[in-house]
Every structure is written in C-alpha cells, then in structure tokens.
Amino acid sequence: MSTPSEIVDACRTLFISDVHLGTPDCQAALLSRLLRRARPERLYLVGDVVDLIAMRRRAVLPPAQQQLVARILRLARGGCEVIYIPGNHDAAFRRLSGLRIHNVRIERRWIHELADGRRFLVSHGDEFDTHVRIAPWLLALGDGMHQFVLRLNRWCNGLRRTLGLPYWSLASALKRRLGSARRYIAQFEQAALHQAWREGLDGYIGGHIHQAGFRAGYGVLYANDGDWVEHCTALAELPDGRLRLVDWQGRTLATEPHVVPAPPPTPGVLINA
C-alpha cells in the first residue's frame, strides 16, 4: 500500500483547477503545500486559475498567492510540462491559445493520453452550462448564496486555524444537502460524459462546478479535479495510468471506478451510475 506522499511524489500528471487567484477565497498556501511534494511530468491548469472577473471589482494577491505563482513557474522552468486551459473566469486568456509564455503552454482544450493508453478530453467545463436545465433565476440565486457561503467558509476556517484545527469546507458540506445543487451536478456530468463518448474518447477531465469526483457511464469515465476555494483537491495520474483524487495533504479521497462497456447514451436521459 502506497503512502500519501508516495502517491503524490510518483504521480505522472497532476490536474488542478478553479484556484481563483486574486480572490480572498483562494487557498494558495494549501495548494503550494501539495506542489512542494509533487513532481509531475505534466501539470494541467484546468481553468479559473486566475479570477479576472472578481479582480475587476477587487484584486487580492497576498504573498501566499504570489508564492504559488512563483512555484508553478519554477515547475515549468524545471522541466514539468505545464498546460493552461483557461475557464470562464479567465476567459480573456483564451485568445492566447497556441502560445507558450514563461514555459506555460496555453490551449483551449486538450486530449491527454494516460500511461495505459486511454485518451481523455481535458477542458474547463463551462461549455456544458448550456446543457444544464435549471431556471436562470435559480442559478443566479445559487451564485449569490455561494458567495455568501464562501465568506462564511473563510470565517469558519479562520477560527479553526486559531484553534489549531485543519481546513474543513463548510461550503462543500452545505452543497451536498441541496437538491438543486445535486441536480445541476448530475446534468453537468451527463453532458461531459456524452461529449467524451461522441468524440470516441475514454473519458473526460475538467473542473468548473467545484465538485470533485468520478462517474462512469456508457463505457466512459468522468473525472472532476475539484477546486482550491472549497474542497482543495487535485486529480493525480499514477505511473501506470490509474487516476486518484487527492486532497491538499496528498491523501487519496477516491480512486477511479471500473468502467463497463455499454450502449451509446440517449440524449437528455440521465445516466444512473
């Protein structure tokens, strides 16, 4: 049995997204802690790494966030292939697709081949928002509530640090109890699975919805690497191609499920997986 540090140290590829640099919610110190131990051959920054939308209102870039940026650039200079796939909060960087800046390659989307030969579509995931059938007013209300909960999350974890307790996500705990959030996540996962199937791929890797985890359906694997404002998780590919979801300490939270071949999906029908 591998220890958490061995899993992170030996990972072939690391996927992180939704860091939201430039906001007070960014857990930069926890991500830096993970990256100090990880030595991936390739690092994917799967969108919303920089929150340009929030920074228009108020930019927050404390030393911990600056140190995180410096660490990623050091990885790039040290031989790690860094691929940045912008999301909806850093969409302005999409116009730079195809360029390499400070050894960081910027792409709109990418096909990643695992060590075992499986091929996965990698994108941020905001392109699937149009497939989610939830009333716009409910989405707007949910976004406002989410921002409020994130502020509570900062206060809660500030108190926990004072008491010497580890990070804990209040926002994540509340989200698991909301039926509308679960429906949104299920529809998003369905759309991503269907897209990977349509392109003849073995799976999909993305972020966007701040809900880490795996899902299998119709012979395709969905993997979401989570975020670094609530869950503080990343997706790690091991040397043999297996995928694991890890937290900021490198502990394994979930391993990829077995994917069973199945007939093609019916559009609009949710997968029971």
Brief sketch in words of this structure:
With about 270 residues, the chain is an alpha/beta fold.
Stated plainly, the CATH topology is called: Purple Acid Phosphatase, chain A, domain 2
Number of distinct helices: 7
Based on Cα principal axes, name the global outline: globular
Q: Which radius of gyration do the C-alpha atoms yield? A: 18 Å
Biggest β-sheet description: 8 strands, mixed
Mean pLDDT: 85
- Low-confidence stretches are 133-142
Output the CATH homologous superfamily. Answer: Metallo-dependent phosphatases
CATH architecture: 4-Layer Sandwich
Fraction of residues in H or I helices? 25-40%
What structural class do the secondary elements suggest?
A: alpha/beta
According to CATH, what is the class?
Answer: Alpha Beta
Number of domains: 1
Strands in their spatial order, largest beta sheet: 4-5-3-2-1-11-12-13
Question: Termini distance?
Answer: 28 Å
Strand content: 15-25%
Q: Could you give the count of β-strands? A: 13
Order of helices and strands: HEHEHHEEEEEHHHEEEEEE
Pfam family, one: Metallophos
Protein name: UDP-2,3-diacylglucosamine diphosphatase
Domain Calcineurin-like phosphoesterase: 12-211
Organism: Modicisalibacter tunisiensis
